[in-house]
Amino acid sequence: MANAIISSRRLLSTGSPGVLNGKTGKFRRLAKDILEHRLFYFFLLPGAALLITFHFVPMLELRLAFFEYGLGGIGDFVGFEHFRTAFQGLGFPRAFRNTLLLSSINIVVQMTLTIIISLLLNEVVNARFKKLVQTIIYLPHFLSWIVVASLFILMLSRGGIVNAIIKSLGYDPVYFMASQTWWRPIYLLALAWREVGWGTVIFLAALSGIDPEMYESAKLDGANRLQQMLFITLPHLFPTISIVLIMNLAKVFNLFESVMVMYNPMVYEVADVLQTYVFRIGIQQHRFAYATAVGLFRSVIAFVLVIAANRLTRKMREVY
Amino acid sequence: MSMMSRQQTLFSPRRKLRLEPFSIVNTAFLLLLISIIVIPILKVLVDSFDGMASETVFSLFPRRLTLDGYRHVITRSTIIRPFFVSIGMTLAGLLVSMTVTSLYAYALAQPKLPGKKIFIAMAMITMVFQPGLVPLFIVVRNLGIMNTLLPVILIKAIDAYYMFLMMNFFKTIPASITEAAKIDGCTPWQVFWRIILPLSKPGLAAISLFYMVLFWNQWFEYVIYLPKATDLHNFQVFMRSILIESETQGYDGFVVASQALKNAIVVISIIPVMIVYPFVQKHFVKGINLGAIKG
Which residue from B9, B103, B138 is facing A288, i.e. has the nearest CB? Predict the structure, then answer.
């Protein structure tokens, strides 16, 4: 019914000679469309209100990065003063360095492990075993960072099993979580433990799209399983690999919770990342303006990375 | 449906099962992988029943079986209270977030909604640009909801990524079904409640799991937004103070925890996730793939 009315109105408006008439017809149609969809605007209301309150209003507060902030609220405009302070200080460059270093090693380690595991999992013929492995390796992703950190700390603490082994071999116990040498490897291990299994989801989805006939014909040509894996499966994964890589690069500046639960003042030198730095300076020491500036710097870089990554993946999709 | 048949052909063995060296090595590797994941969890489970004070030996069974750890959890109000906060907040969070997200997603799944682009853009922006910790903190403070449970739920109530996934589920439902329902006299609300939601069950189940885990695992929001309302802190925050802060920062916890108790706390925090996980696990991979392909 409604469609019939709209289409007849469209006929009328396109049929009328005056531009003005066409325009009012357009507005009428829009008004009618809006009226017809009125219920859906109520559907959008709660979500939109939350997005505005907790996302777009905070964006307005970013102006703090360019002002003094004291007891009386926002003070004088200081331009880029806070950014200069950040770059000349010690805490910010250190956090910046650690963020880059930990993220990039993490990306390399995780991507490699994820791809290897996906390829091997794809070769499993027994569907039940495959399902079992998948079920187990996806699980850690659903455990909180607190649980993951607890699991590692329980094993690595002074009375933990790892130190028990070290002691039984006649060496001194190691305080892993407080050691500047050990903290990074352990942190990266914990990250990999939680996320590598989950990372295979997207690769396995890509692998399921490969035409089985390819393998059949390769087999006829005498290719063994390793050759099939290297020359059929892996090349088919390249688009996915590059897209996942770019997406991971875009997330370089997002390290946060995982560090929060595992670091401590003893290892700030090797562990402090931008987000944890902002948390300490801003929320704990109440230097709102300065912390906002550092946070803004982080957000802008992250934003540029995400946008660049999007452009790149779109180009990639065109190429493949 | 076509997705299903594709999966089926995928799982049918495309090569004959033979004991090649490759399969043996492969299976061994995957078994190793499984044990790397399972052993730390299993160890915590075993140790939670272990009456011996030290953690020094790895055994598959408790050396001296004790239920002290669990008994302490149940009898000490300082421990059981955060647990119930977690349960309540997870249920509340799930209810609020699923309602808000599904309504938003369903509205955006309407092909001819005027102004749709604005609402899509709003959600997209949240994925690419985060204003950061401090501005959000200031807003929460200005709203006067510090030290209440409101920010904990409201900030996380609509996740753009899950919303778009859900929108894609809704879009896969053929328009002919909703049209037919409309002709039969269903109001748009009835269409949503009686037809769309039941048809999107796998997707909704998957996203419910994600939200459930998100709210169950939440801790940071409690630390930042409820600094003075420690009696409202959830189980994760409690676990952090007992297991992590006491270990890494010399924090003097208000409970001097035995090893069994510490391990029991970790086990209890994992249990709810473990209970729901198998039910929804079968949905989510399919759901995610579908969402990814359609998106």
Answer: B138
Cβ atoms within 10 A of the Cβ of B242, count? 23
A–B CB contacts, 8 A cutoff, strictly below: 269
Q: What is the DSSP string of A16-64?
A: S--HHHHHHHHHHHHHHHHHHTHHHHHHHHHHHHHHIIIIIHHHHHGGG
Classify domain B77-294 at the CATH superfamily level.
MetI-like (1.10.3720.10)
Percentage helix, strand, coil for chain B under 3-state DSSP, each rounded to 5: 75, 0, 25
| 8-state DSSP, A281 | I
Helices B201-217 and B77-108: crossing angle in degrees, nearest 10, is: 140
pLDDT tens digit string along B253-268? Answer: 444 567 888 889 999 9
How confident is the model at residue B19, as a pLDDT?
A: 64
Does residue B121 sit at the A interface (CB-CB below 8 Å)?
no
Of B132, B281, B288, the CB nearest to A299: B132
Q: Which residues of A touch B135 (CB under 8 A)?
A: 58-62, 64, 292, 295
The yes/no answer to whether this complex scores an ipTM above 0.90 is no
Q: Write the CB contacts of B273 (distance below 8 Å, at least 6 apart in sequence).
A: A142, A143, B213, B216
What are the two backbone dihedrals, phi and then psi, of residue B109, each rounded to the nearest 5 degrees? -80, -5
Question: Which residues, in sequence order, are CB contacts of B199 under 8 Å at separation 6+?
Answer: B173, B177
**Distance (Å) from the C-alpha of residue B273 to the closest C-alpha of chain A?**
7
pTM for this prediction = 0.85
pLDDT of residue B56: 56
Predicted local confidence at residue B295, as pLDDT: 31
Confidence of residue A21 (pLDDT cuts 50, 70, 90): low
Above 80 in pLDDT, residue A167?
yes
Q: Where are the domains of chain A?
A: 89-319
* B139 in contact with A, Cβ within 8 Å: yes
Nearest chain A residue to B53 by CA distance is A159
CATH fold of A89-319, please? MetI-like fold (1.10.3720)
